[in-house]
Amino acid sequence: MSDEVTEGVFLWSESGNIHPYSVSPWKELWVANQPDNSNLQQHCVMIRYTSSGYAFDDFKCTGNNKKHICQCDAA
Q1: What InterPro entries has UniProt attached to this entry (predicted)?
Q2: Considering only CA atoms, which of 51, 50, 33 is closest in space to residue 42?
Q3: Which residue has the higher pLDDT, 43 or 27?
Q4: Does residue 50 contact residue 43 with C-beta atoms inside 8 Å?
């Protein structure tokens, strides 16, 4: 999932479906105050563990070894 095409519009890479991060219930899936596009360079999404549990966080797409989040159909 990334917002590389349009800033602030997160799309699942496989389906192209929009992830509406700013509305409930989706905004509760993000780390507090995220996504923030730090230094105007964070366009990909990772899952991060916080004291509240796992949540989405935006990060720089290049120069790292993090795994990307993929969308799949429910079983």
Answers
A1: C-type_lectin-like/link_sf (IPR016186), CTDL_fold (IPR016187)
A2: 33
A3: 43
A4: no
Residue 47: its H or E element: strand 42-50
The confidence score (pLDDT) of residue 37 equals 93
User: Are 59 and 45 contacting, i.e. CB atoms less than 8 angstroms apart?
Assistant: yes
Q: Give the residue-averaged pLDDT of 25-29.
A: 83
User: 9 is written with which tokens?
Assistant: 């519009």
Neighbours of 19 (CB within 10 A): 19
Q: Residue 27 carries which side chain, given as an amino acid letter?
A: K
Which pLDDT belongs to residue 35? 92
| Torsion angle of the four alpha carbons 37, 40, 43, 47, in this order, in degrees rounded to the nearest 10 | -40
Q: How do residues 41-68 score in pLDDT, each as one tens digit?
A: 999 888 889 998 999 999 888 876 666 6
| Residues 6+ positions from 63 with CB-CB distance below 8 Å | none
